[in-house]
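[stage:ingest] chain + small molecule (adenosine-5'-triphosphate)
[stage:ingest] validated
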Amino acid sequence: KSNAVMVEKEESRVTFEDVAGLEEAEMEVKEIVDFLKNPKLFTRLGAKIPKGILLVGPPGTGKTLLAKAVAGEARVPFFIISGSEFVEMFVGVGAARVRDLFNKAKEKVPCIIFIDELDAIGRSRGKGAYLSGANDERESTLNQLLTEMDGFGSNSGVIVLAATNRADMLDPALLRPGRFDRHIYLELPNLREREAIFKVHLRPLVLTGSIDVNFLASQTPGFSGADIANICNEAALIAARKKEDGVGKIDFLDAIDRIVAGLEKKSKIISAEE
Ligand code: ATP
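[stage:predict] done
[stage:export] tokens:
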């Protein structure tokens, strides 16, 4: 796997308008946006903003999206790395990348660092990790991350957001005060939240007839935001293939069928592996 584009700096154009059904999580991250926009408001009262915030939730629930929205709303640079990119690297390389990332970020304060799949580097030491040869590397990368987190002050302007599906798998050292000590939970959307997510993803589409979002939401229990985004795009592709003038209800139903079939296949493969 290439490790050429490990550290990406992005200008995030995502805003809270693009995020749906995550009201509570959104409220919690708004404080970060306010801080990044106007740090003095906080510092003059002696308030310390958290340095590290962990976004915890199942795949596709919008962790990356929410992190991008924080950067987009605050209009600050967004540095993104994925923990899984570190897994197959030589000892020392991962640590050097982490150092490099924090150095670059510190030159661009205020800014956001986003670490996707934190568990890939931050998995609890000893929990089966010793079986894999990648362990030394993971440990040195993890240690570097801890060092970096400790190395800057609370109100320095660098805020580290990280995503994981499993907070309980993480090395407790990561969760200590001054590191990832604030957790925000994202859940799979309920009916009302799925409706809201459908609305966001219907926005760019050309529709025919009236599309009942309540009906679509009722047909998709257990679906994540990413699944819903997928359905909307798939429906548009189906309509385009049929050379329709707009995306209709039947296209959405076909798309749901396809996605459900895909999910079933995936879960069969997973259970066959067990
Ligand atoms: P993973 O754990 O798999 O990395 P994630 O939680 O980071 O997933 P995202 O990558 O943020 O999920 O979601 C993928 C896409 O799904 C988003 O870019 C967006 O299009 C859509 N999506 C997910 N959640 C939401 C949401 N709450 N509102 C609107 N769109 C969403």
